[in-house]
Amino acid sequence: RQGVRQWLAGGDSLPQALISLHQAINLFDTVGHPVPQLLVDLAPLYNQLRQSDERLVYFQRKLMQYRLRGDTENAAACYLVLAGSFRHRGNYDQAISSYLRAADLFEQFHPRLYTSELMVAGTTYAEWGNTRKALHYLEQAMQLNDQFRIQGLQRFFTFQAVAKAYLQENNIPEALRYTEQALHTARQDSLDRAQFTAYGLVLKSLILLQAGQAAQVQPLLARAQRLADSLRPKYLEELIRFYDARGRAEEVRRYSRIYLDLTDTLDANEGLTLAAQYESERVEQAQRDQIARLRHTQEVQALRLRQRNQLLGVALAAIVLIS
Predict the structure, then answer these.
(1) In whole angstroms, how far apart are CA 302 and each of 70, 228, 231, 265, 322?
(2) From CA 63, how far away is CA 81, in angstroms rounded?
(3) What pLDDT score does 8 carry?
(4) pLDDT of residue 216
(5) How far apart (Å, rounded) are the C-alpha atoms in residues 61 and 250?
(6) What pTM, to 2 d.p., does this model score?
(7) What are the distances in angstroms from CA 10 to CA 14, 182, 312?
(8) Lowest mean pLDDT across 62-66, 165-169, 257-261
(9) Cα 78 to chain center, whole Å?
(10) Alpha helices by DSSP H, the chain
(11) Residue 282 CA to chain centroid, in angstroms?
């Protein structure tokens, strides 16, 4: 609780929050009580502190400790976090291996995270350029979503990842089919309906642009913009590209000014936001391939502000439940 309070206070309290949470994990380890969710939630705090190397070293050390003790739950959490670190560094081989090791362990005790890790392994394969392997794991994740009746954000991102993999293969019909399923899932979400419907509409716009159906794109982007609580970089960049391709200079200038103002604000607050890993990673997600690396970077900016609050809430809930 103390660590979470310090984390929420932000600023100069963040280093002390990390110390407090380390102490808590060590005490749980002493009494042999697994805390996988606390370990997962610790990762974004390292990100806020811009300590990516320290994060890698810490979780490698803890993984060795938990493997020696046979602590399956904590080892799974460490693999999950390490996978995100390797992915961030562009080390896809180790990232995917770590995601799959995490999935194998989560299968024993946490169906939702088991399914999620297969999904993230698939999206990482897509980033690596192997869409065949990507679809193999994403299809498994879709089946497990049905089996375990997983709804909401995780289901949305799975459909979105499948659509992007098919788009990567230039399979427009399948990409559109799974985008429609993602949109259907988003519309059923009572909390995040507008936000994730907007993301789905942006993805559908990208698919239609690649298919040469530009005439259908402008209404979708306009609708996505209306659905969003505020303009995000992803929507703005798509609007700028759309109007620029049609020689509408005034709209290009207008949206470019808004985009620059917004990105300046995001850059100024970057130290207070969370990098997208598995939450969106999840879920951050998910989503950065060589064909879509630029697109994913834009999505990360769009998701960061929302995910920061979600992760802090999860961290607080985890500590309360553990207590």
Answers:
(1) 39, 10, 9, 13, 31
(2) 10
(3) 86
(4) 87
(5) 55
(6) 0.71
(7) 5, 35, 11
(8) 257-261
(9) 17
(10) 2-9, 14-30, 36-48, 52-69, 72-88, 92-106, 111-128, 131-147, 152-168, 172-188, 193-210, 217-227, 233-245, 249-268, 293-322
(11) 3
Residue 167 · residue 178 · CB < 8 Å: no
Residue among 148, 136, 175 nearest 159 (CA): 175
Of residues 224 and 301, the one with the higher pLDDT is: 224
50: left (phi over 0), alpha (psi -120 to 50) or beta: left
Q: How far apart are CA 61 and CA 301, in angstroms?
A: 31
d(CA 166, CA 156): 16
Enter the tokens of residue 264. Answer: 């300046």
The answer, yes or no, to whether residue 249 has pLDDT greater than 80, is no
Beta carbons within 10 angstroms of residue 154's beta carbon = 20
Give the number of other CB atoms < 10 A from CB of residue 267: 10
Judge whether 178 and 162 are in contact, CB under 8 Å.
yes
Cα–Cα distances in Å, from 162 out to 65, 90, 157, 271, 276?
A: 36, 21, 9, 32, 19
- Per-residue tokens: 150: 């997983």
